[in-house]
Sequence to fold (119 residues):
Amino acid sequence: MERSVNQRGFSIVSHNLSFYNGFREPKVILLVSHLGRSKRERGETMRRYGAPIYGKQFVGNTDKKEVHDLDNEKTGKNECQIDEIIRAQHARTFNPDTLDQAHREGYDNCAYCIGGSKR
Ligand SMILES: [Zn+2]
Fold:
């Protein structure tokens, strides 16, 4: 266990060398606590890099035909609910990854992260 805090409020809680795949592939796991500040306050985005989003900025909810901007995601109760959309398998991305493309495909703006709904 190693613990250090720098002046930006980062706290390195632990680092831990683990081995996967029968000890062939070493991975370093770094757990960082940011002392209660939200991702947005830290200037981080809320993009998801795994399936089905693959790091795209705009995510469509195929159920409500609404588009969300993950770079401005709102995580309050009943706001964007991106993780719920993904869990329900209602998430899709656009090609190209633009708000214009989502509009061309008939998606309306989420009121929380984009605003200016046309409904
Ligand atoms: Zn949204």
Notes: The pocket of zinc ion is lined by residues 68, 74, 80, 110, 112-113 (CB under 6 Å).
